[in-house]
Amino acid sequence: MEIVAFLIAATAGYLLGSVNSSIVVVRLIKHEDVRQFGSGNAGLTNTLRCFGKVCALFTLIGDLAKGVIAVLVSQFLAGKLTGGAADLYLIGCIAGLFAIVGHVFPLYYGFRGGKGVLVGVSIFLVLDWRVFCILIGIFAVVLLLSKYVSLASVIATACCPFITAAAQYLWEDFDYTIPQILLHFGVLVCMAVMIIFMHRTNIQRLRSGTERKFGEKKEKEKTE
Questions:
Q1: Cα(85)–Cα(131) distance, integer angstroms
Q2: For the chain, which has fewer Cβ within 10 Å, the N-terminal or C-terminal residue?
């Protein structure tokens, strides 16, 4: 039954993740396709640069909410299916991983979506709010020091599996075995690799010194 629970988590995560908040918000408010403007990325940063704070705020809320909902729905269904015997943390990680897959390759939008950072971090609002706060803190510090959203996103993402493993091993309110911790770590590494891979063009621009800093405006031009 646990395998069925994992399949449910993956399916629920992917279908919910495929609902792209940026695309929905910009279409409803501006009657445009965000993927045709700026960098062409259907994510928070491009939404903010091209369509302003209101659209960005609703995109932020939507991306955080769908990650949370994916984890909660998956854990609820898995708990019912297995009689509470399933590793609900692992179920949450799987749901989060596939929510990111859905966000990056959305079923409803021709498999062209965003980069998955917000969706990835949002799952920790359910799994462990303390890890969520640490990740947000790392992101904020790197952003303040560097002014690069992409760099802050990549560093916080890279830290995520290690912070989670350390928390599960050290914090007394966690009661996981070493194999469980390693399994959670492995799923989160997959999540981190996907998000970092989606930032590969940003990393190239960071290396070449052409990446835009936070607050720099880009003309709202349609992409070719």
A1: 24
A2: C
N-to-C CA span, the chain: 48
Q: What is the pTM of this model?
A: 0.87
pLDDT at 76 over 70: yes
Q: Where are the domains of the chain?
A: 2-208
Q: How confident is the model at residue 224 (pLDDT cuts 50, 70, 90)?
A: very low
* Helices and strands of the chain, counted as H and E runs: 10, 0
Label residue 204 exposed, middle or buried (CB < 10 Å: 0-12, 13-18, 19+): exposed
Cα separation, 124 vs 135, in Å, equals: 9
**Tokens read off for 155:** 């560093």
Answer for the pair 51, 26: CB distance below 8 angstroms, yes or no: yes
At residue 42, what are phi and psi to the nearest 5 degrees? Answer: -90, 70
Across the chain, which distance is largest between two alpha carbons, in Å?
A: 54
Rounded to 5 degrees, φ, ψ at 19 are -80, 100
